[in-house]
Amino acid sequence: MALWVDKYRPKELSKLDYHKQQAIDLKRLCEQQDFPHLMFFGCSGAGKKTRIQCVLRELYGPSAERLRNETMNFTTPSNRKIEITTVSSNYHIELNPSDAGIYDRVVITDIIKQIAQTNIIDTNGQRDFKVIVLTEVDDLTKDAQHALRRTMEKYVATCRLILCVNSTSRVIPAIKSRCLGIRVASPTHEEIIGILNQICQKENLKLPAELARNIASKSERNLRRAILMLEACKVQKYPFTNNQDVPEIDWQRFLNETANQILMEQSPARLEKVRDRLYELLSQGIPPDIIFKVLVQVLSKKCEVEVKSQIYEFASLYEFRMQMGSKQIYHLEAFVAHFMSIYKKYLIQATEMMMDMDE
Amino acid sequence: MQFLEPKTTEDLIIHPKKIEDIRKWFMLGQQLGKSNRILLLIGASGSSKLSAMKVISKEFDFNVCEWIFKAEVDRELLMEDGDRGYHYKKQSELFQEFLIKVSRYNSIFSQKERILIVKDFPNTFLRKGNEEEFWTILKKYKSIGTNPLVFILTDTNSKSLNIEMNLFPDKIRGQLGIDTINMNPISTTLMKKALKQICAKMKEHEHVDSKFIEPTQSIIDDIIAQSQGDIRNAIMNLQLVSQQGSIDLSMQTKSRTKKAGKAKKTPTDKINKGVGRDEVLGIFHGVGRALHAKKEEDPDTKKIKLTHNPDSVADCFLSQPGNYIELLHSNYLKTFSSIDDVKDFTKIMSASDIFQTEYRNADKLHVLNLNLVIRGAMVCNTEPAKGFRPITGYANKKFRSVEEKCLQEYLSQSTEFNDGHRMSLKDYFVDYTGYLKLFKSFGAGSSSL
């Protein structure tokens, strides 16, 4: 029961659907003897992981696809035990060190040491290094990033790192300069439409152009989401119709409702209800930055330009603080409170203006 | 203190009903002919647990035998054990010896029956994992002991020190037939009565303390309020005050007591530094004080002033600023009525999170941060909401289970998709879960599922 997203994921560099020139460059890079550390960056759903897997295959052949899951144990200096699940083949290991929370530094140093201390003995003599794939490196603490920088230099003879990040802004410059950065831009709407059509062809479905465009624009150039949407549409109703509704997933609906609640009433009691809803979203694993983004988008639509500028000012302030701090809810809440206060004033002003006009 | 120790049940200032309860326990033991009964006496410190026990045992003609642990005495006793230097007997062994020997062999001086009282628990039993040992001793005692045994426990807030929970779980209580009597902190009226009696007594016996000056009623009221139901503390303060008897103090207290009547439910004023123990605020209490900040107008300068000093509130929570701030955050919205005030306060909360996250210089910074938050809560709320708004627990508590469930689900499913590659937490929750639910809800008839 593979999902389409997984089923139609390209496995080789030559089969990638977009950024073809980049694919060719990557391929050449793999053919060279001198393989650098890589850092893939780009929005989610742009295809970073797909490219990483293709690169691994290019380096080691199909055997890099034979994967096993392992749980690794680490012990912090304070004797706390941490478990991290990893995915590995004979040639590479893939893990998300930020799973360890504030102890990510231990994971970074330990794992790289463990992997890098043993040389690869390959009969074919294909490659003399192993690859460590680290995901969500931008979520690492500064401490861990510095540890990463040191170990990167030390073990360069036996291993290479492939980092996967959403935004390079939170990666320290020392790491950035040690990696070859590869930007994976989100696919354009046309590219998404093209891919959706391809999938439908393979599945023997007929996809109306209108629906394809609709899905592409709703996916916010996130290819994974687009394909999931397509499959959801298919499950919901087939044959497709031109103006078929693209189903919204529950957290999106929930968040939109929350925004509407904020617009309906501005009071501490309402804020408390909104906070509960935000807690619920957070506890279901929706990242706070996405919540923040959607809220700002929906809320600012309802305002005039002058008010908008104020809202963006506070949004940027609290979004920044949210990245700095540890309790996201405080900052989300602060933004909502500020919005409520501003919006309330704006509404009162607007009604006064109306009254003046009537007179 | 000692001079004033109660001698008869009439002197005891605990509620008559409780005295009756303890008496009943004694009588029941005599009626049943069972002498080795065990009782748990639980109460706040200074609620005269031990005194009550002593007085009532006397009434029933028991000799009181208290367990006292003294490390030095034991060392001397055990010196003889020694070529290999000191040999310490284990505390638990000593304890067992005490229980069994004392109850077996009567004192040579009196033929009265004895009652054993254990107040200071041997430390070893408080450690985790040693409960079993304690229980076996208790069971042994139950089978061979001959005298009644009373354990006196003080209420504590901390979980690790909660003897009642750890050492006397319901199972053991049922097995050994342990009875429990809870003592309440002493009520204000009883305390008032007692202090009056004491004053009278002190006057009668002037030879005991020639410097005794009877304090004014207002001071006594103050002492009672501050002792928070702790009679020992109250008597000690009384002694102190009656010796000073300074006019200054009484003046100061006078102006305070006017408010004391009004603020009966809310805590005592804590300006009178002369008497009273350092105020210990429960966390709920402290949050309440910040959220329902009382303000008063200074008669001289006409400026609005806070009744409670934010510093002193902050002082109570230095050890756990994080918890305090979180509880405050969970509850503040109920007490605000204007969204503009909320806006100001959230600004502070947001800044406080940044401070709280900073780990360098944490000890100093977190104290300042706590202060900032408390002051913020007190000042920002210009139009407090009316009516009774109880503080409920942490707001995010009810979502913890959801969070855990989601995480479990993620861990078990994260490798099922994505060709065996692990997908990140974000991707899983943002994209996959929602659509998976959709697929399921649209029916299983689909070909792809």
UniProtKB/TrEMBL annotation, chain A:
A biological process from GO: DNA repair
Subunit comment: Subunit of the RFC complex, an heteropentameric complex consisting of a large subunit RFC1 and four small subunits RFC2, RFC3, RFC4 and RFC5; the RFC complex interacts with PCNA. Forms an heterotetrameric complex with RFC2, RFC4 and RFC5; this complex has ATPase activity but is not stimulated by PCNA. The heterotetramer of subunits RFC2, RFC3, RFC4 and RFC5 interacts with RAD17. Interacts with CNTD1; this interaction facilitates crossover formation.
Primary role: Subunit of the replication factor C (RFC) complex which acts during elongation of primed DNA templates by DNA polymerases delta and epsilon, and is necessary for ATP-dependent loading of proliferating cell nuclear antigen (PCNA) onto primed DNA.
Gene Ontology cellular component list: DNA replication factor C complex; nucleus
Gene source species: Chironomus riparius
Family annotation (SUPFAM superfamilies): P-loop containing nucleoside triphosphate hydrolases (SSF52540), post-AAA+ oligomerization domain-like (SSF48019)
Localisation: Nucleus
GO molecular function: DNA binding; DNA clamp loader activity
Protein name: Replication factor C subunit 3
Pfam families: DNA_pol3_delta2 (PF13177), RCF1-5-like_lid (PF21960), RFC_C (PF22534)
InterPro entries named in the record: DNA_pol3_clamp-load_cplx_C, DNA_Rep/Repair_Clamp_Loader, P-loop_NTPase
Keyword Nucleus listed: yes
Cleavable signal peptide: none
Family label: Belongs to the activator 1 small subunits family.
Keywords for this protein: DNA replication, Nucleus
Automatic annotation (TrEMBL), chain B:
Gene3D superfamilies for this protein: 1.10.8.60, P-loop containing nucleotide triphosphate hydrolases
Positions of the UniProt region annotated as Disordered: 251-271
A single BP term in Gene Ontology: DNA damage checkpoint signaling
Any Pfam family hit: Rad17
Regions of compositional bias (Basic residues) in chain numbering: 255-265
InterPro entries: Checkpoint_prot_Rad17_Rad24 (IPR004582), P-loop_NTPase (IPR027417)
GO cellular component labels: nucleus
Leader peptide range in chain numbering: none
Single annotated GO MF: ATP binding
Keyword field: ATP-binding, Cell cycle, DNA damage, Nucleotide-binding, Nucleus
The keyword ATP-binding is annotated on this UniProt entry: yes
Locations listed in the record: Nucleus
Family per similarity comment: Belongs to the rad17/RAD24 family.
PANTHER family: CELL CYCLE CHECKPOINT PROTEIN RAD17 (PTHR12172:SF0)
Record-given protein name: Uncharacterized protein
Source organism (scientific name): Chironomus riparius
Species lineage: Eukaryota, Metazoa, Ecdysozoa, Arthropoda, Hexapoda
